[in-house]
Amino acid sequence: MSEPPARSRLLAAAFSSAEAPERDDDDATAAATESTPLLPASASDPRYDGEGDHDDPDEAAGEPSEPLAPSKTPSGIRWPSVIAMVVLAGLSLGIMVFAFMVPSAVEEYAKQAVVIEPTNLSLESITANGIRARIQANYRLDSQRVPNEHVRRIGRAATWLVGSVSTAGETRIRVYLPAYDNLLLGTAGLPPLRVSLLDGPNKAIDFVAELVPGDAEGMRRIANEWLEGRLGTVRLRGQADVQLKAGILPLGTHSIAESLTFQGGQLPRLPEYNITRIGLAEQPVPGGSPAVAVDVSIAAHNEHPLSLEVPALAFDVLIPGCGPAEPPIVVAGATTSPVAVRPAADVMVSAHGLVRDLPEPLLRLCPGSDSSPLDMLLRKYLGGEAATVLVRGQERPAGDAPAWLSKMLASIAVPVPLPGRSLDNLIRSFSLADVSFAMPDPLADPDDPASNPRVSGTILVLAGLPADMNVSLNVTAIRADADVFYRGDKLGELTLKRWHPASSTQVPATDDGEATLKIRSTIRDAPLNVTDADVLADVIQALLFGGREVMLAVKALVDVQVETVLGELVVKAVPAEGQIPVKPLGADLLGSVAPRVEQVEIIDTTSSTLTLRASVTVANPTPYAADVPYVSVHVESNGTTIGEAVAYGVRAHAHADVTVSVRATWNPSLGGDEGVLRGRDLLSEYISGHNTTVTLRSHGGSIPALPALGKALSRLALTLPAPRLRLPGDGGGGHDDGDADDGPRFIRDATFHVLSSTATFVLASPLLRNTLFIDWVNATALYNHTEPIGTIRYGVPFAVRPGLSTTPRLPVDWSLDSIGYRKLREALGGRLKLDAKATVGVRVGRWRERVRYEGQGIGAGVSL
């Protein structure tokens, strides 16, 4: 504050007089004039220099006198005034410094120089109202932390003068949350404390404080926001009335308020923990149904200087509902054992829970979903992800826990992630036995499961059970969605959308082995959606020609219906991996098939095609059954297409013969001119009994519902011996049994008439209802393969009816000079084995063809 004007002039005059006592008269006169009071003094007023009144008559008459100059001698200095002014100025300056500047500097010094290092925080006891905590710390004043040199000097001087301060009586500190309508977070009662203010080494403080929690709602809101990760910043305001004293000198009561702001990253976090054990066991309940006891052990590391004894606490274990808006579902109660927490040491927590039943909301499907809250939890847990459960305190105190602690814990739900289990080794074996296949229904819609190949068989699974699970399990049904792979490439998808009955056998653990669960289920007509036809072709090729097992890999998500002591529950989307060993189709599959054709019937003809219907019996040497409602293949010879065969209603059983209804179209024109020639040659070779083969090859229309599969399988052509026709009279009569071979014997007998130069033949027709016509014959009879007997040229058509029929007498032109003719005459009245070569024109309906025939070892009778 500035001094009044008169006071300023007074101080100025005093300082100027003291500084220049020897100035000349003009200066003295000026000085005296400046020091003259503003109001003239009366003659009776006393003089400040201590001298008596003047006797000058002019002055007495009221005339103004000349100002008096100060004496030039030392005895004329006004020392009292000077001293008074100096003291006054010093006090003013001291008041300004110590009242305004020093406290501000000391406060800044204290904030910057003080260093507090907590060494231990231990909870001595939990009382009915709060916690008695022992706080130990080291503190010191480090002036080097103060960057301002002036503040540092003032602070060091002030704290050196004071030495130490102490509080008088107990101090109550109240902590508020300004952002939450000043909710009271809690209070702390501090005992009287004495602290040294000297700059230097660490000083130890050790005291016991009473901590009392404040508004429970505020604590719950803060805790939940922190746990949910929504707590960005926290602003705390501490407030206290502190009575200070220095020694015996009281320093008064000071109201202190301080605010602190913590960012989210500065807040303490839940310590990392490890669930070391989860044990499940059945536990009988007196007067009730058995329950499942759950024992959990958790290990964590306390990295803080915190020591406390936590009493036994009761908690509820909850599972999140269908969504954030739905309340969590209580599934079990748990009680923890007393826990001792020590600074910088591992903490072990044991909890025991009891699951008495499965609440209905836990099993109820969520709206718009096919999963329940339990399904979603197990899907994450069994899939290796962290599944979160909630732990919330129970309001009912457990053991020695005070009511306020239980009430506070009951308002906070802590999410606890359960580390997912790795189920890579859960399935010990996965196999499919008694396999049978069903091809797609050609009349099924594309979206119908019947439009895919279908698999039936018995699934055998051996699963290992965790060692800490001592609960009876019974699998009653399974369903699954499985991806099937071959050599890393996806073959298709095996879908079991409906439940398939299952049974299981639980094998207890032994000293040198684990507990296992054997599961058996029979599946019927499970659709196999082939996604890569080329991969299927590779599998079939390996089965046909590989000669060893083909391993298919399976990755599946399995739904399991399980009966437990808690009731029946469905465990969905359990990941499972395994292998399906597929046995080869046999080392000599093609030779073992041995097709036999029976009941041949021509149902349609054109000038160049024949449509036949026949019954074909083949052997199934494989361990697989098959159901093929329709399949079409091209028939080839030497790489040329000569026809098409369609099979209907094939039902093959493992290691058994199967009779197939086949409709075949003989149409060599499919292969062009080369096909026509090749078809004629094939017919000639076949009826002549030569070893002939045909090739069956799939095409885009082989499986109408899966054209890509038919194309992919077309590179796996099957070359088979031509089917053997079952002719009338096979098995006896008409020919020498000793000469029987595997070729068809269309000419069963012959008779040569020497005198009439004619011959008749007994023919066997493979047709059941159709008559075959021979339009003309140009043939030669031979003895011993080379010696001609005679020739037959006949141009009158004759019929060959179903079964055995005899031809009309055909004229023979004898080779009279040949050895063969002489041998014929020598056999007159007996029999002779002859060979024949012929070119024959045949006709069935509108179809006509010219074929060659070569027969050997034909038994012929010779008569006159």
Automatic annotation (TrEMBL):
Residues 52-61 have a biased composition (Acidic residues). Residues 594-709 form the Tag1-like fourth Ig-like domain. Residues 741-851 form the Tag1-like fifth Ig-like domain. The keyword Nuclease does not apply. Residues 1-19 have a biased composition (Low complexity). It comes from the Eukaryota. This is Uncharacterized protein. It comes from Remersonia thermophila.
